[in-house]
Amino acid sequence: MTTGDDMREVRVELGERGYVVRIGPGILAGLGAALRAVLGEGGSSVAAVITDENVAPLYGGCAIDSLRRAGYDARLVTVPAGDATKSLATASRLYDELAAAHMERSSPVIALGGGMVGDLTGFVAATWLRGVPFVQCSTTVEADVDAGVGGKTGVNHPAGKNLIGAFYQPRLVLMDTATLDTLPDRDFRAGLAESIKHGAIRDAAFLEWHHRNAHRILAHDAAAVAELLEKNVRIKADVVAADEREAGLRAILNFGHTIGHAVETLMDYEWRHGECVAVGMVAASRIGVRRSIMSAADAGRLRTLLETFGLPTRIPATIPPDRVIELTKMDKKVAAGKVKFVLVPRFGETVFRNDITDVEIRQAVEDMKP
Hints:
Layout: E1 8-12, E2 19-24, H1 31-39, E3 46-52, H2 56-69, E4 73-79, H3 88-100, E5 109-113, H4 115-127, E6 134-138, H5 141-147, E7 152-157, E8 160-167, E9 172-176, H6 185-202, H7 204-218, H8 222-242, H9 257-266, H10 273-290, H11 296-308, H12 321-328, E10 341-343, E11 351-353, H13 358-367
Parallel strand pairs: 2-9, 3-4, 3-5, 5-6, 6-9
Antiparallel strand pairs: 1-2, 7-8, 10-11
């Protein structure tokens, strides 16, 4: 639904674990009141906001002020920016902060930031006292269109990305579109990779919408960005509602992630997640074309769209194919020793393949080098 004052709402239907995603400008200022409405008045008055060093000076004060106006004794905890922060060592430090704040089982923990902050904070919320209320206040395109919805939380391990984690749904998600105005252009563009992915796997018309509205999106047109976020949240919400714990359908969301996660690890997280997903989608498309699953025309159209949004479609020459192959075998989607690849036979549809060979992966990686 679309509400007044440019605010949009999408409900993630998960029974008693269901929640509302609110999208609109300036809604971070209403965090405290929104949280009281969801959690009620009888719970803990202690709350923690976890953010990174980039977001804290921009929006930390707004979040804390809103919580305090609603009667919360709120504390702001800042971690270093960057995906390398998403580790068990950082989680342990955050547990110390929650202990010092005397956080109880009904004390909410709020993630304020992008995908890294959301994943890390959600994991901490899921494991502190075996689970405390978790709230997402996303401030990046990537988090808005993907990481902020669905309840996948986790931290990285030297063996691979997101290998340690839990499914843990938030109680509330706020997407303040005004926060995207301060997002660096590289981060804004990187987040669009997940939006393009959603169109490729689930909604061909939405993928075409990206082609038609590229100039508006890149110009940060408010109406276009709001529409983009709402469409993405609806796609993600429908998939999550049908398969909360990735037993089947939800695995389609991993299109581009199998090789993309390997590249992300090998780049030591210097590339943005969306940039790695972009090259991962191109690699998966190349495999699909070689298998006669995807047409060369569709693969080219997808690559061109990614390039239109300034996303990479080449893998750095320094990336060794053998290490990519090795890391795909550590992927969370490996079953019985086989990697489950998501391929796109035509836009809006997906197929799974667990017989992709090392030779095919190596060829895709080599083909994509400059």
